[in-house]
Design a protein that fits this description.
By secondary structure, the chain is an all-alpha fold. It has three helices and no strands.
Length: 54
Amino acid sequence: MPWTAADANRHTKKANTPEKRSLWARIANERLRKGASEASAIRQANSVIKNHGK
């Protein structure tokens, strides 16, 4: 299932800007294409967003 930026709100509070939500969706979809499970793709996208801008 491809993720959209709107899905980011359900999975992390850190994606609080349109840019971060878009990045979250891009990362999650990239991980899915590379064979990760949906849960793993979500965790990886959350991690990227959490550390984004540090």
